[in-house]
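Researcher: I'm preparing a figure for a lab meeting and need a structural model of a single chain. I don't have an experimental structure, so a prediction will have to do for now. The sequence is pasted below. Please return the structure as C-alpha cells so I can convert it later.
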Amino acid sequence: MTGERITEGWSRALSLYETTKTLSVVEHSYTNGRERNTFVSREHGFRISWPNGWGVNWSLNGFYKRQVALGGSVDMPLVLIPDSLYGGFRPAVAVATEVGVNIDIETYISRHIRSGEDDLVEVIRSIGADLGSVLHFFHLRPFKGPSHERVFSIHKLVLTRDKAYIVTAMHIAENALVRNDKLKSDLEAILNSFSVVNF
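Model: Understood. Here is the structure written out cell by cell.
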C-alpha cells in the first residue's frame, strides 16, 4: 500500500487492522446456539460476540459469501450487521469456515484472501493455530455520496489442524471510521471476541 495518503481515516483503518492480530482458544461447556449477544457453534467450533446495535442476519449468508469470494467448499454460518448505515455503507462481519485444508497459511491467504499486491498481510505462527490478517481496500462512491472514497475490508484467518476460519469485516467506509468512534469500537469488539472453541 505504498503511496497511500496518510489521512485520519487511513490511520484509523490501520489501527483497526492491528486489532485482528489476537486469537483465543477457549474451553466451552454451553450448548449450541445463542447466548446474550453471543453465538456459539458446536458444529463449526467457534464463538463470537457483538455489541448492542448489531444482530445476526440469517438471510444474507449467500450474498456475503459471494462478496468475500471464498469458493464453494466454504461454509458461512454467521453474518452480523448493524442496525444502521455508516457513511453510506452497511458494514458487516461474516464468519466462514472450511474443513479439509491441507496447505500452509501463506498459500491459503494467497489463493483465497488476497485481492491485490497492495494488500497488507501479516502471519503469526504458533503451536496449534496459525493466525493471518489481511487489509485491503477499493475506491467506491458511497450511497448518495458526493465522491469516491476508500472502503476497507479486514480478514482474520485462523488455520488449526485441517480447518480454516475466516472472519471478515467488510464495507467499512473511510469517512465512517473518521466520523464515528462507535463503528471502530464495535468492529474491534467483534473481531477481538472471535475465539476457536474446544468443547
